[in-house]
Structures are given as C-alpha cells and as structure tokens.
Amino acid sequence: MEELGAELAEVRLLGVLENIFTYEGRPGHEIVFVFLGRFADPALYEPDELRWTESDGTAWVATWMPLVHFAPGGPPLYPVGIYEMLYEVMGMT
Known about the structure:
Shape: globular
Mean pLDDT: 90
Largest sheet: 2 strands, antiparallel
Strand content: 35-45%
Number of helices: 1
C-alpha cells in the first residue's frame, strides 16, 4: 500500500533475514521481514513496469523479472538469502 497504493491479498510471512551491508562507505544493518502475497487487482500484473513517487519526490520504476534471472551466476538479488527463500517457496527445489 505504501508505495503503490495497491491492496494485497493472501499475504503470509515467509521468513526473516538479517542484512549487513555497506552503503556509500558506511556500514548498515537491517532486519528484513519477507512476505509472499499477490495484488488483489490482477490488472496490476499487466504492465511491464510499475511506477511510483516517494514522499520526497524521488521517482522509481519497478520491472517484473522472472526469478530464474537471479539464479547463481546472474545478477544479485538483495538481501542475501531472499533468492533461496523464494526459490523454495515457489516449488523449484
């Protein structure tokens, strides 16, 4: 809801990941709660891109990518561990 203003359905917690990282030369730490769900409105899956603007005016674009795109040897998917979590839940094991 926060970024897209879209209602979600069938939301469930998959797990929790700890992410320790460096951003702009400074160490960072976050706890990431990973949820699986779907858009309540199936029309939101039709566009190739989803666009939104943050409260500070920063514009963002999200592009749908198949999970296999992030398979080992491909580009990274953050936080570390989320690829394996999604791979397992999608029955790809």
